[in-house]
Amino acid sequence: MESVRLDRWLWAARFFKTRALAVRAIDGGKVHLNGNRPKRSKTVRAGDGLTIRKGPFEYTIKVKAVAERRGSAAVARELYEESTDSIERRETMRAQLKAAPTPGYEGRGRPTKKDRRLLDRMKDRFGH
Q1: Quick check: pTM over 0.90?
Q2: Residue 122 DSSP label
Q3: Mean pLDDT on 84-94
Q4: How confident is the model at residue 125 (pLDDT cuts 50, 70, 90)?
Q5: Which residue in 7, 14, 5, 6 sits closest to 79, CA to CA?
Q6: Which of 2, 45, 58, 61 is spaced 20 to 30 A from 124 at the CA atom?
Q7: Which residues pair with 80 in a beta bridge?
Q8: pLDDT band for position 124 (50/70/90)?
C-alpha cells in the first residue's frame, strides 16, 4: 500500500480516537499536510509532513509508513517520526499548563449559571 486517506491514517496512527474526530479536526483546519489545509480524502504517503493541533498542543511529524488499520500504540508509533523541535515545544507547553493556576470560584455561595459558564470556558482554554 502506497497511500491512504488522511482521516484513516490519523485514526490508524492514534492521533484521534475515532475517524469522526479526525474528520472534524481536518475540516476545522487543525491538520495541515505539507503546509496546506487538506480535505479529509487527501492521500498520505511516506515522506509527507503533517502538522496536527490537538488542544493547546501542536505535533509536527513526518510520515514514515502508511496503514489503513488501527494497531497497538507501539505499531502506531512506527508510522511517523516527530521532530525534536515539536517535542520540546510540547514539553514547554505542558510545563506552562501545569504551573498555571487552576481557575476557581471566589464568590460567596453557589456560582450562578453565568459564573459556571465562565469557569467552563476558562477550563477549556487552559486544557483542564
Answers
A1: no
A2: H
A3: 94
A4: confident
A5: 14
A6: 61
A7: 63
A8: confident
CB 126 within 8 A of CB 100: yes
C-alpha 63/C-alpha 48 separation (Å) is 5
For residue 26, give the C-alpha cell.
Answer: 481536518
- Which candidate, 9, 15, 10, places its Cα nearest to that of 66? 9
What are the extents of the domains in the chain? 3-82
CA angle, 117 as apex, 98 and 57 as ends, to 5°? 35
For 12-69, the pLDDT digits (tens) are 999 999 999 999 999 999 999 999 999 989 999 999 999 999 988 999 999 999 998 9
How is domain 3-82 classified at the architecture level of CATH?
Answer: Roll (3.10)
Q: What is the residue-wise DSSP string for 15-71?
A: SSSSHHHHHHHHHTT-EEETTB---TT-EEETT-EEEEEETTEEEEEEE----SS--
Cell numbers representing residue 55 in the block: 488542544
76: enclosing H helix or E strand: helix 73-77
What the block records as the C-alpha cell of 75 is 505499531
How many C-beta atoms surround the C-beta of residue 119 within 10 A? Answer: 14
